[in-house]
Design goal:
- There is one protein chain.
- The N terminus is likely disordered.
- The chain has a single domain, classed as Orthogonal Bundle (fold of a uncharacterized protein from magnetospirillum magneticum), CATH 1.10.3540.10.
- The longest helix has 17 residues.
- By secondary structure, the chain is mainly alpha-helical.
Length: 201
């Protein structure tokens, strides 16, 4: 399993799943290259993410910006203007790049399920996965049960939003075809790890 650049597994994704509509808005701000004041106005004053409090808006905007910041304006364009399928897959690609917690779960657990014709993922799969993560990054062992549970909810929701599982209740795996636009981008940018995680079906 990999790490996020020089960092270990992080729990920043607890701030949200793919956040498709919110990410379209953040992608537009990044494409427009807004400065700090314009960013603050959009997120806090105009509340374009429509959150209940400024702190929630700032936290979620930060997550999305960090996530999208792992890629470049070509992917931002796909997120901003693409169909729901293209946008969700582009966001999944950025999520995998941003958090190997997402990517490694797909690359190991879901891949193994595909190979063994196991139709569903489960809480047990997640718990065993975290045990493996803790061997790579000891800080994972210190995560509270509430954090582990929330991360599971977020990762499973990401998989549902990207149409890798039917929904977060039955967690049934479904076949996925990578949109040509997303695959072309990942191949061109040599994002082999991300593509490998996504091409598990």
């Amino acid at each position: 399993m990999g790490k996020i650049e020089d960092k270990t597994y992080n729990g920043e994704i607890v701030a949200g799943s793919l956040l498709i509509e919110e990410s379209r808005k953040i992608a537009r701000l990044l494409l427009e290259k807004v400065d700090f004041d314009e960013w603050h106005k959009a997120i806090v004053l105009d509340n374009i993410l429509q959150k209940r409090s400024p702190s929630a808006a700032i936290r979620q905007a930060r997550l999305i910006k960090h996530r999208l910041g792992t890629m470049d304006k070509e992917l931002w364009q796909l997120i901003h203007e693409g169909s729901s399928e293209i946008t969700s897959q582009a966001l999944l690609a950025a999520s995998i790049k941003h958090s190997h917690l997402v990517g490694d779960f797909m690359d190991t657990v879901i891949r193994q399920h595909r190979q063994t014709f196991t139709p569903k993922i489960s809480i047990g799969d997640w718990n065993r996965f975290l045990e493996t993560c803790a061997q790579i990054d000891p800080q994972v062992q210190a995560w509270k049960d509430s954090t582990r549970s929330k991360l599971k909810q977020i990762v499973f929701r990401i998989l549902a939003e990207a149409k890798y599982i039917d929904n977060t209740r039955n967690c049934k795996l479904i076949p996925v075809s990578i949109a040509p636009e997303v695959k072309t981008y990942l191949v061109k940018k040599n994002e082999t790890y991300v593509l490998s995680c996504m091409e598990i079906t």
